């Protein structure tokens, strides 16, 4: 205990780099930099006066209030070419990767895919190399998820596998370093470091810029962690590096965090409060993706349609956006800023041949201007994810979702009236705290009433720190949760099959992704509604070159006549290669 106190005292007195005020570093030595070779601590009573004098002298030469005021008023974004000064206990060359090879594994949602690309962009600029071969890696980083217990258990199991790899590492090679990134690092920081001694680095979702320093500290044999959440980090100046060179689509993060505080959700505690990227930086990233030839962009955020860019002062007095009718928020209405409708409009204008999607929205944030824009703009996909979570108003109130079943159903009708032919998907939780059989029956009936095209259904998993953990009782037995989940899945598949079968006989525009995973003679792509479409790899006419026969390649738009449908997939035969603009005459 005394050693830890000494270490913390030294850390607090050091002049840190850019992550100074937010870095939590777990060191097992009691002094830093000049006395790393020492493993013993001086007697606290003898050194108390000296420590106070040392602290006072460091405080006197440290930053003043004016320093922090200047930092707060300075622009947040920095040129990517700027090099930060290293912390005093590291030399500048110690922050460089020296061509060490990094292996990245991604678990969980699309935000984690984007986080992986951000982390790799930062490490690549520091001199690290990327490898897809686990055996040759010098650094293994797992980008993790904490949304459910099963997701975390997957990581614990993976760590046990990696422990074997680490212990068998030849002494002639560079020591293998293992890091946990993302939500699980944020939620279980102490447990990970204490339970799995082989974990060298922890980095929360807002600490990826600090990875070079954390890995440099780990090279000295110490565990290093930075898991503090930020009120303003959006990585707006970090250009993500696409992990798949042959990809036809990309994720673009437009905001981070969530302010909704639904009782079941861990996200506000692992990713922090909402903050949005400046519109200009988002548009720049989308333009670069267009120049690289990508044909689809998905705008990402935990609550993507509550986007609010307040970086431009002239828009800070703008009126607040209206909520969906019958919906409320768990927080005070926010005023000013450039809102989601403005961003969606600007992004869709970058490249008329690039599809635009967005996820994951909250049903409360669908004002008419957003729905009208989706209807009018050809390259904004007519597909909306509308998480319901439950079909029972009583359960929705316990979840603090801010709407009733009736308000949700009214919104569904309004969306379908505003965007004819729209494809709807949703999230549902089976067995939330206090859910009765009647509540479950109401959720089943909502699935039948709305008839979603796609769905994501899960059994409830209580998470520590959430409001439900502190105020509610997880009183639905596990076997009941699983039985209800199976019933929801069965009903969803029945209704989704009916909904998707309405496409049979229709011609749909499909963005080709590549070969089908189940057949080397078939191609796979996605339609406007984000459903997978399978069709034979055959020669076809090219609309832009009459009389010219071609085979579809990844990134091509093709017209496919649908011949069959299931709950998850459409099948058909290809008609021709076309463009997004020209396809409107056929679909």
TrEMBL record:
Domain Radical SAM core per the UniProt entry, residue ranges: 244-498
A GO CC term assigned to this protein in UniProt: cytosol
SMART domains: Elp3 (SM00729)
GO MF annotation list: 4 iron, 4 sulfur cluster binding; metal ion binding; tRNA-2-methylthio-N(6)-dimethylallyladenosine(37) synthase activity
Cofactor(s) this protein requires: [4Fe-4S] cluster
MTTase N-terminal domain span: 100-220
Catalytic activity as recorded in UniProt: N(6)-dimethylallyladenosine(37) in tRNA + (sulfur carrier)-SH + AH2 + 2 S-adenosyl-L-methionine = 2-methylsulfanyl-N(6)-dimethylallyladenosine(37) in tRNA + (sulfur carrier)-H + 5'-deoxyadenosine + L-methionine + A + S-adenosyl-L-homocysteine + 2 H(+)
SUPFAM superfamilies xrefs: Radical SAM enzymes
GO terms under biological process: mitochondrial tRNA modification; positive regulation of mitochondrial translation; positive regulation of translational fidelity
Keywords in alphabetical order: 4Fe-4S, Iron, Iron-sulfur, Metal-binding, S-adenosyl-L-methionine
InterPro entries linked: Elp3/MiaA/NifB-like_rSAM, Methylthiotransferase, Methylthiotransferase_CS, Methylthiotransferase_N, Methylthiotransferase_N_sf, MiaB_methiolase, rSAM, rSAM_horseshoe
Start and end residues of each TRAM domain: 501-576
UniProt cross-references to PANTHER family, sorted A to Z: CDK5 REGULATORY SUBUNIT-ASSOCIATED PROTEIN 1, MITOCHONDRIAL TRNA METHYLTHIOTRANSFERASE CDK5RAP1
Protein name from the UniProt record: Mitochondrial tRNA methylthiotransferase CDK5RAP1
Organism of this sequence: Saimiri boliviensis boliviensis (Bolivian squirrel monkey)
GN (gene name): CDK5RAP1
């Amino acid at each position: 205990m005394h050693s830890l106190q000494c270490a913390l005292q030294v850390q607090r007195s050091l002049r840190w780099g850019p992550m100074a005020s937010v870095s939590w570093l777990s060191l097992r030595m009691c002094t830093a930099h000049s006395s790393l070779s020492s493993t013993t601590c001086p007697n606290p009573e003898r050194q108390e006066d000296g420590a106070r004098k040392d602290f006072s002298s460091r405080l006197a030469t440290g930053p003043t209030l004016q320093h922090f005021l200047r930092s707060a008023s300075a622009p947040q974004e920095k040129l990517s070419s700027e090099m930060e000064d290293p912390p005093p206990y590291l030399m500048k060359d110690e922050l460089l990767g020296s061509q060490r090879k990094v292996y990245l594994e991604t678990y969980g949602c699309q935000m984690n895919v984007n986080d992986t690309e951000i982390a790799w962009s930062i490490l690549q600029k520091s001199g690290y190399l990327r490898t897809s071969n686990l055996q040759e890696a010098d650094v293994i980083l797992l980008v993790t998820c904490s949304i459910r217990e099963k997701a975390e258990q997957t990581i614990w199991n993976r760590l046990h596998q990696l422990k074997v790899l680490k212990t068998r590492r030849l002494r002639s090679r560079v020591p293998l370093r293992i890091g946990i990134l993302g939500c699980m690092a944020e939620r279980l920081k102490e447990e990970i470091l204490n339970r799995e001694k082989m974990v060298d680095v922890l980095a929360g979702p807002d600490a990826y810029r600090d990875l070079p320093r954390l890995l440099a500290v780990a090279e000295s044999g110490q565990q290093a962690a930075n898991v503090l959440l930020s009120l303003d980090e959006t990585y707006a100046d970090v250009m993500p590096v696409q992990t798949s060179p042959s990809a036809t689509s990309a994720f673009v993060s437009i905001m981070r965090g969530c302010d909704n505080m639904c009782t079941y959700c861990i996200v506000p505690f692992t990713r922090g409060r909402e903050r949005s990227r400046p519109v200009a930086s988002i548009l720049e990233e989308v333009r670069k993706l267009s120049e690289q030839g990508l044909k689809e962009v998905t705008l990402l955020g935990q609550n993507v349609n509550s986007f609010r860019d307040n970086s431009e002062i002239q828009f800070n007095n703008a009126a607040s956006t209206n909520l969906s009718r019958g919906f409320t928020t768990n927080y005070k209405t926010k005023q000013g800023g450039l809102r989601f409708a403005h961003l969606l409009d600007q992004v869709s204008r970058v490249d008329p041949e690039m599809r635009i999607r967005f996820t994951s929205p909250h049903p409360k944030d669908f004002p008419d201007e957003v729905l009208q824009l989706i209807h009018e703009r050809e390259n904004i996909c007519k597909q909306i994810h509308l998480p319901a979570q439950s079909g029972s108003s009583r359960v929705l109130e316990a979840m603090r979702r801010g709407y009733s079943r009736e308000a949700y159903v009214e919104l569904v009708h309004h969306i379908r009236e505003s965007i004819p032919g729209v494809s709807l998907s949703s999230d549902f939780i089976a067995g939330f705290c206090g859910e009765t059989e009647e509540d479950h029956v109401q959720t089943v009936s909502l699935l039948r009433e709305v008839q979603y095209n796609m769905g994501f259904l899960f059994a409830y998993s209580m998470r520590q720190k959430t409001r439900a953990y502190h105020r509610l009782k997880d009183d639905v037995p596990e076997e009941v949760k699983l039985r209800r989940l199976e019933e929801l899945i069965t009903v969803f598949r029945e209704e989704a099959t009916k909904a998707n079968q309405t496409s049979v006989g229709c011609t749909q525009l499909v963005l080709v992704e590549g070969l089908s995973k189940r057949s080397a003679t078939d191609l796979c792509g996605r339609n406007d509604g984000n459903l997978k479409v399978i069709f034979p790899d055959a020669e076809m006419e090219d609309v832009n070159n009459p009389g010219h026969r071609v085979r579809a390649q990844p990134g091509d738009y093709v017209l496919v006549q649908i011949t069959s449908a299931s709950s998850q997939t459409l099948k058909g035969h290809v008609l021709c290669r076309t463009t997004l603009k020209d396809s409107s005459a056929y679909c």
